[in-house]
């Protein structure tokens, strides 16, 4: 089912002292369903009543996507004067490691846990058994709403759908057929199932054929090996489409192969390498779900909840389609961490 968006500028949430700027977000109603969203201008908090302890867990930081989320969270935590502790699982297959990290957050006596989950629903029964009162917030990756106090993220269905729509607009039904290889990321983990469904739905009424799907962890070596295997077996591809890690390694791999007609490269999400590729014309299209802004929103949302203030329980930035034509005008500081930023695992209040 296509996700419907009710595009209406609604209100300015201004609880607390306002900053001079606001953040446009999709405010989803009803919460945790991704069915409808109202565009809302959110004015971020600029002060807190106590230095809350936030524990944030990521699936990995193998690409700069999660690095940019990390930057947004770190900056917002510093601005508000709250404590932030961060851990990464090391990959989408590290379910038990992330569960142990949840336990570590509880032992640390976190006031809230912000979970970038490795699995949509695997932790549900364990969290019920814990019977713990620590608020749990979904971060970026879709998480079962069963135990959630709030969520920040975008529908990964739409990340895939917008990618497919771009291709369908270039190759509508009745036009000459084209072929793509699809590299969605780890099978049944993160946003892979939703993005794959979105892509396929968008391509139904088009002349685009997915001739191979190659699943694998978002690791450079894994994606490079998958890409090499696909290119060896399918020499006449028109597009390689998939994760930012795949797109980054594809730029170099295609240059080395010096093909007569190399396939175009499309990424369904953004990274620093993909952004450079867009500006150089090496990547045809990518989506930005504004990762830095997601990190800032996640800290702001959880602190509002802890302070007992009005808050929006289910929000995310708008998804932006980027091509060579509009990359120069894109406000990249809401999407990408600055050059030189390295993973930061602890922020202490000053």
Automatic annotation (TrEMBL):
Keywords: Signal. It is found in: Cell envelope. It comes from the Bacteria. Residues 1-20 form the signal peptide. The keyword Signal applies. Residues 52-326 form the Periplasmic binding protein/LacI sugar binding domain. Its main location: other. InterPro entries: Peripla_BP/Lac1_sug-bd_dom, Peripla_BP_I, TMAO_TorT. GO terms for cellular component: cell envelope. Belongs to the bacterial solute-binding protein 2 family. NCBIfam families: PRK10936.1, TMAO_TorT. PANTHER family: D-ALLOSE-BINDING PERIPLASMIC PROTEIN-RELATED. This is TMAO reductase system periplasmic protein TorT. It comes from Amphritea balenae.
């Amino acid at each position: 089912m296509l996700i419907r968006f009710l595009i209406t500028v609604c209100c300015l949430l201004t609880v607390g002292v306002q900053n001079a700027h606001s953040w446009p977000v999709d405010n989803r109603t009803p919460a945790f369903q991704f069915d409808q969203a109202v565009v809302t201008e959110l004015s971020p908090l600029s002060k807190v009543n106590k230095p809350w302890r936030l524990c944030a867990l990521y699936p990995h930081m193998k690409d700069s996507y999660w690095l940019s989320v990390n930057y947004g969270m770190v900056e917002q935590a510093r601005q508000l004067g709250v404590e932030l502790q961060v851990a990464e699982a090391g990959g989408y297959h590290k379910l038990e490691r992330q569960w142990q990290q949840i336990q570590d957050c509880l032992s640390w006596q976190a006031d809230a846990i912000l979970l970038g989950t490795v699995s949509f629903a695997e932790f549900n029964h364990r969290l019920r058994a814990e019977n713990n009162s620590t608020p749990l917030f979904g971060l970026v990756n879709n998480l079962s709403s069963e135990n959630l106090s709030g969520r920040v993220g975008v529908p990964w269905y739409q990340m895939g759908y917008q990618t497919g729509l771009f291709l369908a607009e270039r190759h509508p039904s009745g036009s000459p057929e084209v072929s793509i290889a699809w590299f969605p990321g780890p099978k049944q983990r993160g946003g892979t199932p939703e993005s794959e469904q979105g892509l396929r739905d968008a391509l139904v009424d088009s002349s685009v054929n997915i001739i191979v799907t190659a699943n694998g962890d978002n690791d450079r070596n894994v994606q490079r090996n998958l890409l090499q295997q696909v290119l060896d077996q399918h020499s006449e591809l028109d597009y390689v489409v998939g994760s930012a890690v795949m797109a980054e390694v594809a730029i170099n791999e295609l240059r080395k192969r010096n093909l007569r007609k190399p396939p175009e490269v499309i990424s369904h999400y953004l990274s620093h390498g993909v952004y450079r590729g867009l500006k150089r014309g090496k990547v045809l299209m990518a989506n930005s779900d504004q990762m830095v802004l997601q990190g800032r929103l996640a800290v702001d949302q959880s602190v509002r909840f802890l302070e007992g203030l009005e808050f929006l329980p289910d929000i995310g930035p708008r998804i932006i389609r980027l091509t060579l034509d509009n990359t120069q005008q894109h406000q990249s500081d809401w999407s990408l961490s600055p050059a030189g930023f390295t993973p930061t695992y602890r922020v202490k209040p000053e």
